[in-house]
Amino acid sequence: MGRKYSVKIHNFKWNKYLAAGLVMTGIAVLLGILGFFWTPYSTTAMNAAEKFSPPSLRHIFGTDNFGRDIFSRVMQGLGTSIVISSLVVLCSGAAGILIGALTGYIGGVLDEVVMRITDAVNGFPSILLTLVIISILGNGKQNVIISMSIVFIPSFVRIVRSEYLRLRDADYISRARLMGVSRIRILFVHILPNIFSVFWVSVMIGFNNAILAESGMSYLGIGVQPPDASLGKMLSDAQGYLQRAPWYALAPGLTIVWLVLGFSLFGEGIRRTNES
Amino acid sequence: MKKKLLSLFFAALLTMAVLGGCGTDGTGESSGNNSSNDLSGSEPAYGGSVVVGIQQDIDSLDPHKATSAGTKEILFNIFEGLVKPDENGNLINAVASDHTISQDGLVYTFTLRDNVKFHNGSTVTAEDVKYSLERVSGILDGTALISTLSSAKGGIQKVDILDEKTVQVTVGSANTELIYSFVAAIIPKGSGEEAAASPVGTGPFSYVSYKPQEGIVLAKNPEYWQAGLPYLDEVNFKIVGSAETALMELQGGTIGIYAYLTDSQAQVLKSGGNFSVEASPSNVVQALFLNNAEKPLDNVKVRQAICYALDKEEIDDFVGGGTGAYISSAMLPTLTDYYVDLNATYGNKANQEKAKELLKEAGYPDGFDLTITIPSNYEFHMQTGQVVVEQLKAVGINATIQAVDWNTWYNDAYVGRKYTATISGITCDLTPGYLLNRFQAASNKNFINYANTQYDELYLKAQAELDLKKKADYYKQLQTLLCDEAGTAFLQVPANMTAISKDLAGYKFYPVYVQDMSTVYYVKK
What we know:
The complex is a heterodimer of chains A (276) and B (525).
Chain A: H1 2-11, H2 16-37, H3 70-106, H4 108-123, H5 126-137, H6 141-167, H7 171-178, H8 183-219, H9 231-238, H10 246-275
Helix pairs in contact in A: 2-3, 2-10, 3-4, 3-6, 3-8, 3-10, 4-6, 5-6, 6-8, 8-9, 8-10, 9-10
Chain B: H1 2-30, E1 43-45, E2 49-54, H2 69-75, E3 83-85, E4 91-93, E5 96-101, E6 107-112, H3 126-137, E7 156-163, E8 166-171, E9 205-211, E10 215-220, E11 234-239, H4 243-252, E12 257-261, H5 263-272, E13 275-281, E14 284-290, H6 300-309, H7 312-320, E15 325-326, H8 352-361, E16 369-375, H9 379-393, E17 398-404, H10 406-415, E18 421-427, H11 434-437, H12 453-464, H13 468-484, E19 489-493, E20 495-501, E21 504-505, E22 521-524
Parallel strand pairs in B: 2-11, 2-12, 16-17, 16-18
Antiparallel strand pairs in B: 1-22, 3-4, 5-6, 6-8, 7-8, 9-10, 10-11, 12-20, 13-20, 14-18, 14-19, 15-19, 21-22
Helix pairs in contact in B: 6-8, 7-9, 12-13
């Protein structure tokens, strides 16, 4: 076993995508996590004297209409976005593996039924579907996570299923079956490790989509409630001040771009590593 | 390659020249209407059309059935009542040329103005007036469309036609404020059924077309009874999605008048130079409404503590740019005869010591958790909420905002009264008692669950009082009572920020929620 992994690490090649992605994501994640414990200024304290101050050494991203430090709020928003998106990817990814594995491996009627259901879910625009679920469950961070997880499941199911479909008739699986290995062991010990390279890429893409969806939701006023900061809500608040204080919109906007770009590069990096 | 680029460049140049040519032709045509302007001061010019931005869609074109303020502001231009409000908040005669009220306040006699014509060309007769009044009071079919005039609730009992030009209305109970309800639109006899589809009134503008989600177009009424009015040929009320869209449309020149700017937008437009921006007091009372039936707000000391904790100046500074008028009770400062300034009771600045002291006395030395429900479509209230949360935090009250959509707020918080605290605004009409009425324990609009028998008794006395001086006195006592008991934490009457294109003049600001387009004109240059 040990030899197998050491071979893999030996083959692992750095590429510039991976490096850039790691650096960008690393900075964002570190800032976001730091934001939970410490921010340069309070994220909610208002200061009438410093309304709309442009970026400076004192407030590197400037201040908003309440004189709140935008950098501190971006840190808090980053943390919230990353935590929500991670949980969403975790939940929907786990569910996707479970459902995808079963349908892909077993096939038949089960596969047909589940795939039509995922088709139906995919047929709706994801934001619309999330809104529907939110309107049933009610507003709040947990419900945003739950509803987004449900919406994200189909994309994972599809990828996992196609991989299982491809591998289920591979020679080593047939042999394992002949040797009397239990079905569950085949599913999760024999096949699962072999689809990780493909699965990782979809996790990265899913994470990006989750970040964008979460920002979109809070832009629409769902999820994080003011005065707590979230990147999407900051963007929508800044809309009224685009001309007076452009930095207010640019800060959360560019942060989202940074985060998504970082993860895209990271995902691309992993893909290329696997190819080489 | 080089050749290709060169020819592409020329092609581009040619296209630009052609397009540019078209552009100049187009503007030349459209400015043709106003090209007779000479450079001689701000003399009114007749003609032209204006696009006015409005915030929401219309709920009904039937003037008796329309309920939202956003609809009434438009219908004001199409319909008129026997009387109508002017820009000072007084009533002036409109379809009626004169009216008298009997000593006991039970009989109203209206003399109709000569030659007032409906948009369909027919002259307004006493029959039309009788029909309209019977329709709104429910005499016609049993359902009253305007509750104050409802025949079942002491409103209009019967309408008699004394002669062609005189209508006598008998009401069930005397009320000096009932005359304000006669702004109800006069429509042609028997036109109630089709009023919503093809509204016909007597106003300065007639209805042309309406497209849901887009807007409504009105045209000049050439036979309007006020000589010389209106100036404009056409008014187009256009629904703009959001405040930000409105700003872009103003800057792009696609709308000429917009009345609901935020403070920061006003700053942007002022610096632009193409618009004059004016602040005028609105008729909205903004408050942190406290549900008197919910713990811990059922304790008067807790409510007073909240009032002391709030800093009205700071709220106004953050949210309204210092343009609001601070209030401490339910009356518009613009109704000067009835308003009493009670801001000294809790102060305009926060008094955190006093607030903490009261909380301790009430048994909450460490504060408590408070959920503030806010309709999220109102950015103004949402922003106020964020300031309020900070101010309450300073005295130990841990407040959180729960943003809900407008329908949820209306059904659950306002009608269902399922909330602890909420920030919103209530609008007032010209009737001074309108805002005080809702705080009677039994009122169906009493969504703060304020219950005080002393208040109810005083209100009934005020209603029965025919002497206006004494009535005003009662109203002042009611306001003081509401303020002292901290029935709710009143904040401010925000200003309306209106942007008007510099090409236009004559826009009048009303103390009620209307946009009078009849006096607006293009300035002769």
